[in-house]
Design goal:
By secondary structure, the chain is mostly helical. Helices cover 74% and strands 0% of the residues. It is built from nine helices and no strands. Helix 2 (17-30) packs antiparallel against helix 3 and helix 3 (33-51) crosses helix 4 (58-78). The radius of gyration is 16 Å and the shape is globular. 28% of the residues are buried. The model has no long low-confidence stretch (mean pLDDT 91).
Amino acid sequence: MSKYQKILEVIAICEDETKLRNWIANAEREGAQEVEDAARRRLIEVRASKDVDDPNDPIVLDFWKSISALEHELSLERGKTIRLSRTRQKIGRVGVEKTLRDLTLSTQPSDGYHLLHERGMLDLSAEALVLRYPDRFEPEVLEAAQNRLDTDAACTD
């Protein structure tokens, strides 16, 4: 059992973005990586739930978590609010599944993929989402997703 169990339980149900940001900052300052990660992921969930049009479609919610994570990390990195405007516009035009398909089938990993990899959040990448919902994608998309993640894993071993 973690020495942070009680705070982790509170974080898991917190809906207040300000409190979550404070926990992230405090945990970072104190070197409490487990708390920092939990608060960061919860903040991502809370922010994503505000953007999603159809909360009953899990792939849509998961993709908005990815967008939220990328925007959060880029905002921290650049010291100002960052929105993935082109990605948001594409989602509006073609939908979540087509956007995921295109990201996965691109010849090079997206900048977002690299950023999520650097932050230890590849589970939020387009490729990971495609593999999480295999019944929603064609075999060649699933293969491309698996190949990219396998190649990346081989490079970090």
